[in-house]
Amino acid sequence: MDRRTMLVDGGIAAITLAIAVSTLAVGGLGTPSPQSTPLDALGVVLAVVASVPLALRERAPVTVYVVVGVASLTLMMLNYPLDFPLGAAIGGYGVAVRYSGGSDLVRRSALAAVVGFGPLLVVSYQLAGDDLTRISVELTFLAVMFVAIWITGDRSRLRRERIVTLEERAARTEREVEREHRLAAAQERTRIARELHDSAGHAISVILVQAGAARLLHERDPERSKRALATIEDVARGTMDEIGRLVRALREDGQSDLTPAGPAAIDDLLDGFRSGGLALTSRIVGSPGAVPRSVASAAYRILQEALTNATRHGDGSADVTVRFAPEAVEITVTNPTRTTATPPTTGGHGIVGMRERAVLLGGTLQAKASGSLYELSACLPHFAGRAGVTA
């Protein structure tokens, strides 16, 4: 039992005690009866026993209900003007909440204990010598009230169980989505690793050819030999730059999945979507220069996925801007969305894969929907200018 529950139950017990003592002190809720027993030390003790145990009702609901119920019935049998057994009502509610969903025997026993308090009230008033016909309406109300307490407690239990079920389902769904996102990211890393393998293999081939040329031309043509060595240096530097940025990617198999790279590949990609029926407006800004293959491949994949989303979720049109800045490739894809479509702002695997590619290159990717307009923007930094060569 946590601290908050203890404080709440303690407050309920204190309020119940205050109500009970006040009721006994003023001689009941209505006009005081001349036959009522005035409040004395015994009445205070019984009022305490009929109220204070409620502070522990979450820990031992049955024990608390029995103690509070017996004390309340004793007050009535001794003709104390309790009139309304609030403590017993609260204790009965606790029993209903805890045990209304138990086994058949437990449920029936709890039902009998709570609803049976009504007949026990009749017996207590009869033992006190009251005229039952005179208070028949009050007794009927109290009996119906304890039936209502059982029903209310049962419904409260069902509501709590439903809330717990929904919370567990939401947590399970969140875990499944997170697992799917990790899987999508891992698959994208695998694809990136295969592309890195192909790029590195190409760079090594260039190095081997240039190294052979430098060896053969070392004495016959020293200048060409130096240029070959310089090419080897530039290719090695560019390849190391790519490996350093993508070293976290893991490769699961040896299959090749080479992604097209370069401005020509982007133009072909845009033409392919146009021929597929997408009304596409495109702008290529700046000169590609010596963009590393990893950045070019990532730009191609991101643009491909963004246009696929625009075709699937959009109204058939899109606006594309690819800007080749000195140290980054910037991509912006904007498209109107259909009113019945839900744009994949965060949850789709395509968004996860695009973001993974951008992050591995030290870049960023943003996807947002504003009204009926959906925009995806990516920034892929590169340092080809310093490397001096594209791998």
Summarize the entry for a quick read.
Keywords: ATP-binding, Kinase, Membrane, Nucleotide-binding, Phosphoprotein, Transferase, Transmembrane, Transmembrane helix, Two-component regulatory system. The protein is α+β, with helices and mostly antiparallel strands and 391 residues long.
Task: Give the tally of structural domains.
Answer: 3
Number of strands: 5
Instruction: Report the helical percentage.
Output: 55-70%
- DSSP summary: helix tally: 12
Low-confidence stretches: 248-258, 384-391
As an assembly, this protein is: single chain
Order of helices and strands: HHHHHHHHHEHEEHEEH
For the biggest sheet, the summary is: 5 strands, mixed
- Helix/strand/pairing class, anyone? alpha+beta
Instruction: Report the principal-axis shape.
Output: rod-shaped
β-strand percent reads 5-15%
Radius of gyration (Å): 40 Å
Enumerate the strands of the largest sheet in spatial order, edge to edge or round the barrel.
1-2-3-5-4
Measured distance between first and last alpha carbons: 64 Å
Q: Give the averaged pLDDT, no decimals.
A: 80
Give an account of the 3D structure.
- It contains twelve helices and five strands.
- With 391 residues, the chain is α+β, with helices and mostly antiparallel strands.
- It has three domains: 132 residues, no CATH class; 64 residues, Single alpha-helices involved in coiled-coils or other helix-helix interfaces, CATH 1.20.5; 125 residues, Histidine kinase-like ATPase, C-terminal domain (Heat Shock Protein 90, 2-Layer Sandwich).
- A five-stranded mixed sheet has the order 1-2-3-5-4.
- α10 links the parallel β1 and β2.
- α1 packs antiparallel against α2.
- It is rod-shaped, with a radius of gyration of 40 Å.
- The two termini are 64 Å apart.
